[in-house]
């Protein structure tokens, strides 16, 4: 299983203020869908952090996003292990295929792949 990046997701109602604050540390806005904004390091594109009020299509806001090379294989492996699937595998309108799973610490993980 190849991991492409890991992004912490911060539930926030202060998105603009977060962009300004983390901008002082060198982060720049790399994505903004209105309900989720991702900041990234210009010198290290895999160094990212996202801020969201609520998830657009899921019942919970994930704590962490893990982008994998093969999201379908990850889904099958986690489902077969008995892990709790919190949000089903589905294609999203913004170009990702994803599902949510609960880790052993109770954290909700958004596992995704880009189409």
How many beta-strand runs?
Answer: 8
Largest sheet: 8 strands, mixed
- Remind me, CATH topology? 2,3-Dihydroxybiphenyl 1,2-Dioxygenase, domain 1
- CATH superfamily grouping: 2,3-Dihydroxybiphenyl 1,2-Dioxygenase, domain 1
Broad shape? globular
Estimated structural class: alpha+beta
Q: What's the assembly state of these chains?
A: single chain
- Helical coverage, percent range: 10-25%
CATH class: Alpha Beta
Pfam families: Glyoxalase
Domain VOC: 1-114
Protein name: VOC family protein
Task: Write structural notes for this entry.
A hairpin with a 7-residue loop joins strand 3 and strand 4. The protein is globular, with a radius of gyration of 14 Å. The chain is built from 2 helices and 8 strands, in the order βαββββαβββ. It has one domain: 2,3-Dihydroxybiphenyl 1,2-Dioxygenase, domain 1 (Roll), CATH 3.10.180. The protein is α+β, with helices and mostly antiparallel strands. Strands 2-3-4-1-5-8-7-6 form an 8-stranded mixed beta sheet, with helices on one face. The protein starts with a strand and ends with a strand.
List the defining traits of the structure above.
2,3-Dihydroxybiphenyl 1,2-Dioxygenase, domain 1, 8-stranded mixed β-sheet, 8 strands, 17% helix, VOC family protein, Glyas_Bleomycin-R_OHBP_Dase, Glyas_Fos-R_dOase_dom, VOC_core
